[in-house]
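Example 4.3 (complexes with small molecules)
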Amino acid sequence: MLRVSFGLLLFVLACTPLGAADDVFAAAKKLGKGVNLGNALEAPNEGEWGIKLKELYFAKIKEAGFDSVRLPVKWSNHCGKDAPYTIDPKFFARVDWAIEQAEKNGLNIIVNAHHYDEIYQQPAEHLPRLLGIWRQIAERYKNAGAHVYFELLNEPHSKLDDPTWNEQIKHLLKVVRVNHPQRPVIVGPSFWNGIWRLPHLKLPEEDRWLIATVHFYNPFEFTHQGAHWVEKSDKWKGTVWPKNADEEKKLVAELGQAAQWGKENKRPMFLGEFGAFSAAEMESRVHWTKTVVETANQLEISWSYWEFCSGFGAFDPETDQWREPLRKALTGR
Ligand code: BGC
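Answer. The structure with beta-D-glucopyranose bound is encoded below.
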């Protein structure tokens, strides 16, 4: 009797997405299927981009069969300008709440630093502040469960180029690793985490708890047609996917390059963002999304769809219902 229940306990432990992983490859695998809780906490203030996180969202995401959420956070708008760059306690409490919601619903959660606009333009001047931000996050979540993953910075770009970013990674990791020697930390190359920049990403060899991340929005004229933040994207409206069989092959090949880099560099890969904006027609969005998902699954790359319930949304926040074709393309059921 005792043996049966012990076996059962081991089985349950092995199945829970929240148990600690033996190595970083297992940790990356646990991320599985995910969705970005975008346009909420990375807006200048939550709600200003139309989205406020609700308890219900976490339950819906779990129920649909996802394993994780990625939480974009604009810390830089909620902390002091001078050392020690104190993070607003109310804002911190909101992130605590999101982490608790993820845990309560059996979801892993990636906490990142998003839209730190100033550091992309003035990397050297802003590094101390980003270090200060991570020092506080690392301290606050030092006892957090294994369901919490960190991601150092979303889409470095502009003056935060490859060599500059590679240097910053080392400093940031030093701060995080004080409290988190074995927490998975996600980090991607400069140029908006583009797959083609992976060869320029230099990760500290001795740190074996890193997951490399990339973002994928190709062809951009398709995924970003009518996106108001992309200049002249109205001209791309009506672009369908695929335009020809070559486009499918190209997509598969490009994601394959990410997998290949991971193999060669002995790092697990994570596709942290991909999605097609709502101005594209639904049939093409579904086909593109399904193709990315199936390719990533085949390559054994965990992923997170951009995003849950805003402009790319797989979920309609007006009705609190999934947009079924997109949900199905993502979860495969
Ligand atoms: C940005 C979002 C944007 C998305 C697609 C993300 O990395 O943070 O603001 O909507 O990419 O362009």
